[in-house]
């Protein structure tokens, strides 16, 4: 589907081109620079002293719109990219020109002579011999002059067939072809340079937050408010240095991750020129690599076209298990090679960063591989790019925080207008400075730093618990998680399978179960031979290496020895009870599409035999006799594989059933308690595994994910041949159940990856049907890595906050797209996961949720406190402006530094509450309880300050001209008469402090300042509530001590009666009983308000029910719809067959 562009003047054809790009769904628009526009912008930079340039740095689209005019992509020298997600992020790219004229001297040198349909021939413009290109997120795109669009280079074309790859690249490229491709594609390197400190520093300093702080500091220095300005500078520099240090360390780690294979020596074939040694960064797509014996680190992705390889793919899968790679078949058809190989195309591909540990040549003599992808186009390059350019997460807290800051700015604008009016009408000079100062009061410069402090403390607590975080901004999102997807093997269950027993079959009947370990050995026969040879094990570094399941099966034979023959063929040498040797002649590796593997083996002097093992439901279709009498029902935690034997020449057909190999998949000790804890907290658990669906359901039941009283309904979908419809079948997994399905209330759906893909791809009907399944889907089996990522995204579309927990084997994609990905593996494969647990246990999940909830609540409390502190100070200043007065410098300093900064640092020390309650903290600031809390606190503060302002003027001792009229001074009465306040405001925070009077002293000033200061302490205490998401406030000893000390200082100022101190603090002498009573009243009222209204969850639930308020989350809406849908109730509880 193509939608019209929202930017007028761009041809529809340009938008069509967007969908041919591999820009991760970005729209592209062409622009052409105009000289006169550019000159005007340069003049604007100069006249604005760089402010306009800084604005364009923050908004690159404004820079393009100001300097350029729209045009077609063909004419453009600047392109503007825009993401199509909710963020609509713009990025600016400059079009560059690559010259190949030095490499093409004659017509025969054109790449088109070797490959007419290649992008390299279609990108070279004639006669200039130049290539137009742009680079987006480390990927280079060139302009296709025929298709009129940008296309990615650095990879072989997808349309190539198997036979075309063998024919065109089997003998290698010529030197000239290789040179042209290298210039166009760029070097084959995943180059992540260590970013210089000065670049990191400049980028951090240009953050809008620090720019605002710079503005505030300059204004404060102009007003001689040097103490707090210096403190802000020190804190900002410390924050900048810590951030730069952290970014620098991450850059170094990422550089070390990729530098190992960026420059190694390789051997390539040159067409008509033989073999050539060169550095790996010179490789281009289409080069033919020669893989020699011994260990080799692959510098690119390559397609194996001859021979066989065994590689270690731990970089990709997280499992250090040898994987066998076979060569690409020379299929003579017109299908693209990837489509021809279907899901098994990866068994022909050698991935960048993996290690070739063994090669085996065929009759062609050498092992060859054609370079498929280079640089950042490779699998490892994609992993690195996911770290460099993480997917932005949309979290309501951050969006609402920005909106709230905009409200504060609007609030400040009102204060500026009020300030201008008051000072202009009274003829006071320097109005501009006074008005600008209102902004620094209403918008707290320390707010972002205070919010970051809580995240830093949480990150440290997680680190102490063995949970490492590379994406701190996601910690708050963990507090909102309400659905966790778990991998099974290695996550919920033990990493490996244990061999439980063998159920052999003879003459169409099951025999007695042979348990492992057993006192007697398995008798020699077809079943024993199948266990000895039907595997992909190799001898590596003197040890038997391979899939753990194969290792368990092989070791169960006890007396079989494995070794490598002279031609790297696997040879099985039996013990003394057998007189023959078995050689594995050929191996068909395990196929994820076929879900089985086979070997051709031969005993010395015997016939060649084919042995196959795999998933029972997939292999059963190839057997001649599969139905056995007295077939037992599988019980417990088992995983079954069928073993087959045949003497026929046709491989994997008409097989004879040998038996079931029973593997036990034990739950981890902590699995069931953790899932019970999540269930009690109303956090939904879902299993996403590549295992058999019945095995997954059994594990889910034993783990408590599915209650024994709940029914499991298997959903199967099959594509209807020749149509866009699917056949959907509902079938209860339990057998021999006589209950009425229509009376069921609780149920769980289980479905396979194949069924999920069919339902997900059917549009538009599945747009409604799939969400209905996901609402109660608990077990998703036979899921590929792509299926897992897609499932997580579908849950997110239903407004679930999704966490993904896996061991890093096949979960990397899902770990990246989830709101919180938790890897239980520390291999490179999981380096892009936001969270990594040092302990391979799902116990880290509730710990992370607890800390996330505490961090989220702390962020809300900190935001409310900082906003209220600035508002309280803002109201007090505006109130004093009415008398052309204000707070003194040391009064500001005490509130800003001694009160707010210290509270902001220590409030976040409160740890997480140990119990997960069955509801989540609020996720947005724009919610009735939080808004009511802020608004009522502001009204209380305003009313109390106005009350104090008015009441002090009504006192009998009040004098507008004598600030000592409240005191009866006997010793020095003349001083009282002479110390008259100059009511003219000499400038807010202006001039040096004078020992006697600087124009700030007044009874109103003292009253309002003390009330606002104590009000800040009261608000901090009220907002520091502990349970149910944080520990009680008294556990935060530092914070409690800080509040006590600050309150003591305030009381000391009230009762001290020290003239020098009062003179420094610009405080006049007023009796403190009235202020204490008012402060106590404020505290009691705010505490009562917080406990009785704001934090009263039953009250808010009652109000929601009374006003019929319903959650706007998609899954909640869908649940309400389905509860009223009688047809859906019928489908979900009965065996049904219908078309979708």
TrEMBL record:
GO molecular function per UniProt: ATP binding; ATP hydrolysis activity; ATPase-coupled monoatomic cation transmembrane transporter activity; metal ion binding; P-type ion transporter activity; polyamine transmembrane transporter activity
Superkingdom: Eukaryota
GO biological process, alphabetically ordered: intracellular calcium ion homeostasis
Stored PROSITE patterns: ATPASE_E1_E2
Transmembrane domains' residue ranges: 12-29, 35-58, 228-247, 401-426, 438-457, 866-884, 890-909, 930-952, 1006-1024, 1036-1056
Protein localization: Membrane
Residues annotated as domain Cation-transporting P-type ATPase N-terminal: 152-225
An example Gene Ontology CC term for this record: late endosome membrane
Gene3D superfamilies: Calcium-transporting ATPase, cytoplasmic domain N, Calcium-transporting ATPase, cytoplasmic transduction domain A, Calcium-transporting ATPase, transmembrane domain, HAD superfamily/HAD-like
Catalytic activity of the protein: ATP + H2O = ADP + phosphate + H(+)
Primary localisation category: membrane
Entry keywords, A to Z: ATP-binding, Magnesium, Membrane, Metal-binding, Nucleotide-binding, Phosphoprotein, Translocase, Transmembrane, Transmembrane helix
Cited CDD domains: P-type_ATPase_cation
InterPro entries assigned to the protein according to its UniProt record, in alphabetical order: ATPase_P-typ_cation-transptr_N, ATPase_P-typ_cyto_dom_N, ATPase_P-typ_P_site, ATPase_P-typ_TM_dom_sf, ATPase_P-typ_transduc_dom_A_sf, ATPase_P-type_domA, HAD-like_sf, HAD_sf
Enzyme class label: translocase
Catalytic activity, EC: 7.2.2.-
Membrane topology: Multi-pass membrane protein
Family membership noted in the UniProt record: Belongs to the cation transport ATPase (P-type) (TC 3.A.3) family. Type V subfamily.
Name of the protein this chain belongs to: Cation-transporting ATPase
